Amino acid sequence: MPDFDVVVIGAGAAGLSVAAISAGLGLKVALIERGRMGGDCLNYGCVPSKALLAAGHAAAEARAAHRYGIRLPEPEIDWAGVRAHVQGAIARIAPTDSVERFTGLGVEVIQASACFTAPDRIEAGGRSLSFRRAVIAAGSSAVVPDLPGLDGVPWLTNETLFGLEEPPGHLIILGGGPIGLEMAQAHARLGCLVTVLEAAPRVAIREDPELVEGLRAALVADGVEFREGVKVTRVEQLEPNSKAAVAGVIAVLEDGSRIAGTHLLLAVGRAPRLAGLDLATAQVEAGPRGIVTGADLRSVSNKRVWAVGDIADPRGIGPRAFTHVASQHAGILVRSMLFRLPFTKVGYAALPRVTYTDPELAQIGLTEAEAREQGHEEVTVQRWTLAENDRAIAEARTEGMVKLVISRSGKLLGAGLLAPRAGEMAGMFGLMIDRGLPLSALAGLVLPYPTLAEAAKRAAGAHYTPKLLSPFTKRLIGLLKRLP
């Protein structure tokens, strides 16, 4: 008789959801976590980053209040107060993810490292635990690049950035993806010098270039300096001198340029946390991208084991490092592992992703380039700029647009948004794509006025305007007007 029905490794978003649901269904559950409950999202990612961004947005709003006829002095940044806000946000959410709460749910929480000692056995905290099912939800961590000189200089990742007791004087960020861009804007708005170094031809390389152009312009206006298409060949220690009162770091570029800063943030990607699990002993196949699973998130080599969240690498689909994907995985796993429902598969056709800058950049489904690459014929693109949206005009925030990618049959393939709080509109498009709703459903939707979401409706309506104003329609109206 196994010790546990389900053993979950990792108390991040995915692991906590699986543990809570499994225990709620009456199963005997163990949850193993070597670090802080809540994982990266609560402690080092989503929550602290959005809290820091909120502080930066408040400072930016104070500086821009003149656009409403309100004159305010330059905001004074109290870094200790900013840190208290960030840590306070974590503290308010932490009880939901706490040991006490999960113990109360009937989960046995083991605060230790875990490693497999057999295909059906895990060692943790000096105990050997046998299981019917194991769920690996160990997550991912920041990639530390093999960069000459890195071992001789101080550097930061998202796990250490929020612990700084003083604001960076000049923050150099390696990587222009979502984390790099969010932290660039937050620190720039809080009074820090910021330089983003990106090896790709442009920042946010996965996103629609038309929307990225607007986002980039907004960050430049905040004072962020971008160096795109550059390769950092090494880093060096910057010793204190008359110009630099504290030690720092120098990034040396391939062309010989030298960029000096006080702090270096590594934001070049994420890697699954596989080390220490001894997956080979468990006969669990894994690669550089994570644990190889089927579309049902079950290990392809050990049928007792499932993987969810950042560490899962479903065949033919690939990993996705988003907290909302972890929650999606948890739901799929419950249907697949606990209810044994067939044909339960993960899919990302309607997956939203958001860069939480200001304005936010959101993408749901396929970009225009992705749609064409995947062979969709006669793709139509409809745009509606915020300069034509009444709410945006009223708030003097007219930068951005809605961009819809539409199939020949009138189905929505993807939506790109650059707008304040664009992420709040993402669910509407995700529902449309997931349920296969025609674009006419959005065009006919009654939305409250005035809202930014009306830009989405107007973009959808513009798709039908040529047909509405066609010669045939005009002739039809000419005939109908004669009716009594």
From TrEMBL:
InterPro entries: FAD/NAD-bd_sf, FAD/NAD-binding_dom, FAD/NAD-linked_Rdtase_dimer_sf, Pyr_nuc-diS_OxRdtase, Pyr_nucl-diS_OxRdtase_dimer, Pyr_OxRdtase_I_AS. Residues 352-459 form the Pyridine nucleotide-disulphide oxidoreductase dimerisation domain. Gene3D superfamilies: 3.30.390.30, FAD/NAD(P)-binding domain. It holds the Pfam family Pyr_redox_dim. The chain crosses the membrane at residues 6-27. Its cofactor is FAD. SUPFAM superfamilies: FAD/NAD(P)-binding domain (SSF51905), FAD/NAD-linked reductases, dimerisation (C-terminal) domain (SSF55424). It comes from the Bacteria. Keywords: Disulfide bond, FAD, Flavoprotein, Membrane, NADP, Oxidoreductase, Redox-active center, Transmembrane, Transmembrane helix. Residues 4-329 form the FAD/NAD(P)-binding domain. This is FAD-dependent oxidoreductase. It comes from Paeniroseomonas aquatica.
